[in-house]
């Protein structure tokens, strides 16, 4: 299954924040949307980083409540690992495992943001694939005998 298929099923909406948004506001956004990460985008729509719940917790552990006044631009992870819509699930799962990340922005061939996938999205899709393969094998065995 391709990433494009997942985006068609779950939607392409991506919650983003601006580089100047404070961490307290980002935490509220994460809670409001019940998501684990937001992309940080510039005015022109360019993705410049990502802020996850883990980033916030780790910063709070080291810097206390002053972290809540930091901005997305100060806290965000700048190195992004991305997928393309034509990437397959296995590629995404491998990248998440190797890079120890839980969210991957999806960029089109022009580098424009067209969605985001989480580890949950990919695992759910992979399970659906495995179930379909099992059903097809059962049907084959039933008709072959």
Explain what this protein looks like in three dimensions:
This protein has helices spanning 3-10, 23-33, 53-63, 72-75, 89-99, 119-144; strands spanning 16-17, 37-41, 47-52, 103-107, 113-118. The chain is α+β, with helices and mostly antiparallel strands and 145 residues long. The chain has one domain: CBS-domain, CATH 3.10.580.10. The chain has a three-stranded mixed β-sheet with strand order 1-2-3. Strands 4-5 form a two-stranded antiparallel sheet. Strand 1 (16-17), helix 2 (23-33) and strand 2 (37-41) form a beta-alpha-beta unit. Helix 5 (89-99) packs across helix 6. It is elongated, with a radius of gyration of 18 Å. The protein starts with a helix and ends with a helix. The mean pLDDT is 94.
| Main sheet: strands, sense, barrel | 3 strands, mixed
Q: Radius of gyration over alpha carbons?
A: 18 Å
Mean pLDDT: 94
Helix content: 40-55%
Provide the CATH topology: CBS-domain
Uncertain ranges: none
Provide the CATH top-level class: Alpha Beta
Spatial order of the strands forming the largest sheet:
1-2-3
Structural class: alpha+beta
> What is the element string, with H for helices and E for strands?
HEHEEHHHEEH
CATH architecture: Roll
């Amino acid at each position: 299954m391709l990433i494009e298929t997942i985006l068609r099923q779950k939607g392409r909406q991506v919650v983003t924040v601006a580089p100047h948004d404070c961490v307290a506001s980002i935490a509220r956004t994460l809670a409001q949307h019940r998501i684990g990460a937001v992309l940080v985008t510039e005015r022109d729509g360019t993705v410049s980083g990502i802020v996850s719940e883990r980033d916030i917790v780790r910063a709070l552990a080291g810097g206390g409540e002053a972290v809540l006044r930091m901005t997305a631009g100060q806290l965000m992870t700048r190195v992004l690992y991305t997928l393309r819509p034509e990437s397959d699930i296995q590629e995404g799962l491998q990248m998440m495992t190797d890079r120890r990340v839980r969210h991957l922005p999806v960029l089109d061939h022009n580098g424009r943001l067209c969605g985001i996938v989480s580890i949950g999205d990919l695992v759910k899709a992979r399970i659906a694939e495995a179930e379909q393969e099992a059903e097809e094998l059962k049907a084959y065995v039933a008709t072959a005998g």
